[in-house]
Amino acid sequence: MARINRRSLLSGCAAVIAARILTPCIASAQAPAGPFKLEPLPYPATKNEPHIDAQTMEIHHDRHHAAYVSNLNQAASQGGEWVNRPLHEILANLNAVPESVRTAVRNNGGGHANHTMFWQIMGGPGGEPQGELKAAVERDFGSVQKFQDEFNAAGARLFGSGWVFVTVAPDGRLALVTKPNQDTPLMDGQRVLMGNDVWEHAYYLKYQNRRPDYLKAWWNVVDWSRVGERYAAAKAGRLTI
Question: Are the CB atoms for 68 and 30 separated by under 8 Å?
Answer without folding.
Answer: no
